[in-house]
Amino acid sequence: MTSGGSVRPLAVVTGASSGIGLELAKQCVDGGFDLVVASDDGKIEAAAGFFRERGANVVALDADLSTLEGVDRLIAAVGDRQVDALLANAGIGLAEGFLDQDFNAARKVVDTNVVGTLRLVHQIGNRMRARGSGRVLITGSIGGFVPGSYHAIYNATKAFLNSFSFALREELTDAGVTVTCLMPGATETEIFDRAGLQGTKAQTIKKDDPVTVAAIGFKAMMNGDGDVVSGWKNKIIAAVANVTPSPVLAAIHGKGAKPGSAD
């Protein structure tokens, strides 16, 4: 509620304790939204305090969104309130070659990036469709255009999300619900450290500012755009990837993501 008693729209933002998710949540608050926010790193309450200082009513949840139980806890935290915007941003990566990875860790990338996202979009999206209004923003990646040698699971999940976003948008054409896919490039977030990419060229390259990426994504969502690649450099990478053979892309990616490649 605002001080005047009017109801503010509600946004649900996942992965909202740092990086792009934190900045997306800030954009929502500055755009007049109240928040339900979630992450799994123990930092969400601190972020929620910042959002409250900016004038939002906030429900914060520390939940593992790689599990259906965690996603359902988030949905329960929303309760019966109308969700006007869903920003499905939670995501993790994992370095090294696939056969060298712990399988449970690899599966958690899929469960977080894909399964948890699908569960959340399915639940909230059905409410939006029944009401005839709503906005969905899914954080994909330009990495989804590139076979990600030594980061194979992450890039594959982003390819899934990129494709899924376009398909869902088409399915909801006449439903009053918009679906936007935000496709950033390498961005200055904790995902590189959490993924174990230290010691790779990918860790040392200049990265985009999450504040700028989030502002671009939020604007695209509010405009109802189908997709947006943040930054001119990333637009060029995406365009080149679309006309470059996959083996060549995989070899190029491997040179930057292979452990020890920064040496």
How would you describe the overall organization of this protein?
- This protein is an alpha/beta fold and about 260 residues long.
- The protein has one domain (about 10-255): Rossmann fold, CATH 3.40.50.720.
- It contains 10 helices and 7 strands.
- Strands 3-2-1-4-5-6-7 form a 7-stranded parallel β-sheet, with helices on both faces.
- It is globular.
- One of its GO terms (molecular function) is oxidoreductase activity.
Give the structural class.
alpha/beta
Number of strands: 7
- Please give the radius of gyration in angstroms: 18 Å
Q: Specify the number of helices.
A: 10
The percentage helix is 40-55%
**Could you tell me the mean pLDDT?**
89
* Series of H and E elements: EHEHEHEHEHEHHHEHH
Rounded to the nearest angstrom, the distance between the terminal CA atoms is 54 Å
Strand order of the biggest β-sheet: 3-2-1-4-5-6-7
Ordered list of secondary-structure elements with their pairings:
Layout: E1 10-14, H1 19-30, E2 34-39, H2 44-53, E3 58-62, H3 68-78, E4 85-88, H4 103-131, E5 134-139, H5 152-171, E6 177-183, H6 191-195, H7 201-204, H8 210-223, E7 227-229, H9 232-241, H10 246-257
Parallel strand pairs: 1-2, 1-4, 2-3, 4-5, 5-6, 6-7
List keywords for this structure.
Rossmann fold, 263 residues, 14% strand, seven-stranded parallel β-sheet, alpha/beta, single chain, disordered N terminus
